[in-house]
Design brief:
Structural class: alpha/beta
Strand content: 15-25%
CATH architecture of the largest domain: 3-Layer(aba) Sandwich
Distance between the termini: 38 Å
Order of helices and strands: EHHEEEHEHEHEHHEEHH
CATH class of the largest domain: Alpha Beta
Number of domains: 2
Strand order of the largest sheet: 2-1-6-5-7
Length: about 230
């Protein structure tokens, strides 16, 4: 898979591509990463890529021309990162793995000229109900979530037991020491009864999902009832 980051600040992505799982995926030639500087496509002599908002309003908008020229000859899936986008999810991450090339366009300032959203990209994606200074961090979030699902990047068994893999959050996990400052690991994990361990883990998945993500729990219940 090829991933293109389209940004005013391409240096943001240097460490992303050089560390940990992403770096290993690049080394294995599972992923190729390219950065594209929007300013390289500006027709302004000062390399400006933003302008005032028609109708009035605070801030500046990213103009359509530089972004159009930057991505018009690129194939595959094109995604704009924006607080106004649809929520990113594990389901979307899985869907995006089907593409050979993904281009992530990073917003800045007051956002995009709406014609970019309507005509130049396939998705407008948000990673949460909050505002960041730009789309670079969200773009890396999306890229990381997709890359780790590609065959050969992470062990399949690890992916199968993660949060969201079955519609619920992951169960609690523990490591050594067994007791730390009177805080003990649950004894059920040491009894050797794998059926009881699985039952405990399932109960804890449900408990944690109900507590931390009632919206996810409601979605899970609706799906379960629909499949009955």
């Amino acid at each position: 898979m090829k991933i293109n980051f389209v940004s005013l600040f391409p240096k943001y992505f240097k460490s992303f591509a050089e560390e940990s799982i992403v770096a290993r995926a690049i080394e294995k030639k599972i992923v190729e990463i390219k950065t594209i500087d929007i300013r390289d496509y500006s027709l302004d002599k000062f390399k400006r890529v933003d302008d005032t908002v028609y109708g009035g309003g605070a801030g500046m908008l990213l103009q359509i021309q530089p972004i159009d020229d930057a991505i018009s000859n690129i194939g595959g899936l094109k995604i704009a990162l924006s607080p106004q986008g649809q929520p990113f999810s594990q389901e979307l991450a899985k869907k995006f793995t089907q593409y050979d090339e993904i281009t992530l366009v990073c917003g800045r300032y007051e956002g995009f000229d709406e014609r970019i959203i309507d005509h130049l990209v396939d998705y407008e994606i948000s990673i949460g109900d909050y505002v960041l200074t730009g789309g670079e961090l969200p773009a890396m979030v999306v890229a990381d979530a997709v890359i780790r699902l590609l065959p050969g990047v992470i062990n399949k068994d690890s992916l199968a037991s993660e949060s969201f893999s079955n519609g619920l959050l992951d169960y609690p996990q523990y490591s050594r020491p067994r007791v730390y400052k009177n805080l003990e690991v649950p004894s059920v994990l040491f009894n050797g009864d794998h059926a009881k361990i699985e039952q405990w883990r399932r109960e804890k998945q449900i408990e944690k999902t109900q507590k931390n993500r009632p919206d996810l729990w409601d979605k899970y219940i609706k799906k379960e009832n629909h499949e009955k």
